[in-house]
Amino acid sequence: MSVPRTTYDISLVLRPGVPEWPGDTPYSCGWTLRMEDGGGFNLSRIEMSPHVGTHADAPLHVLADGAASEDFPLEVFRGPAHVVELPDALRERADLTEPGLGFAELAPFLPDRVERLLLRTGATTADGGFPARWPALTPACIHALCDRGLRLLGVDSPSVDPRERRSLDTHAALFARGAYNLENLDLRSVPAGVYELVAYPLRLAGLDAAPVRAVLMAPEA
After folding, report:
1. Which residues are catalytic?
2. How high is the pLDDT of residue 166?
3. What is the C-alpha separation between 123 and 141, in angstroms, rounded?
4. Per residue, what are the HEC states of the chain?
5. pLDDT > 70 in the chain, percent
6. Would you put residue 184 in left (φ > 0), alpha (ψ -120 to 50) or beta?
7. 117 φ, ψ to 5°?
8. 8 Å CB contact between 160 and 169
9. What are phi and psi of 210, to 5 degrees?
10. CA end-to-end distance (rounded Å), the chain
11. Which of 12, 123, 165, 174 has its CA 20 to 30 A from that of 20?
């Protein structure tokens, strides 16, 4: 008898008050029509930036002529994914005076080849606050990971770049190598290990990002 696979929903719940990037459009919702007001059915509406909650960025986010949100390659967002929990020593490297985490620091926690890497940094908005800082990988580290096959980098933090970095160099390094990112994942209950990831972006046209429903499935027993 087969044992059901453990499934982790690693998406943030979108609700009023979910933290947005400071200055971005927050999530809000309301009703266009309500049965309690005499309507024949309920009809809701939402307003939000596509960067609120769990989402994928498109190259258009950092490149004026980059591909937009309708052109995400679906095969990147489904397949084996390695969840790595950064140790405290690396989490503390979220100091703005540091250039970021290099490949040599990250390599001991990685297999020889990794296509989808999800980093649990602990600097998450899942608890309702917006972190002041978080660890990020250097562009050089991104290139080294891509040499090992990286196609998707996911993080539980609000961005793959440091909070105060305006040039988004880590984003640019990913897109330059044909790789993509997931941001604002909820990895709090996910042990380190290998899983099957399904995290398709919504098919929205002309945007620089798209919301994602991200799910991890443990290997079959």
Report:
1. 61
2. 82
3. 20
4. CCCCCCEEECCCCCCCCCCCCCCCCCCEEEEEECHHHCCCCCEEEEECCCCCCCEEECHHHCCCCCCCHHHCCHHHHEEEEEEEECCHHHHCCCCCCCCCECHHHHHHHCCCCCCEEEEECCCCCCCCCCCCCCCCECHHHHHHHHHCCCCEEEECCCCCCCCCCCCCHHHHHHHHCCCEEEECCCCCCCCCEEEEEECCECCCCCCCEEEECCEEECCCC
5. 95
6. left
7. -120, 125
8. no
9. -150, 140
10. 10
11. 174
Count, residues in the chain: 221
Segments of the chain with pLDDT less than 50: 96-97
Tokens of 182: 């997931």
Predicted pLDDT of residue 94: 61
pLDDT given at position 140: 96
Inter-residue contact 130 to 22 (CB < 8 Å):
yes
Buried b (16+ CB within 10 A) or exposed e, 112-135: eebbbbbbbbbbbbbeeeebeebb
Domains of the chain listed by start with CATH number? 7-11+50-217 (3.50.30.50)
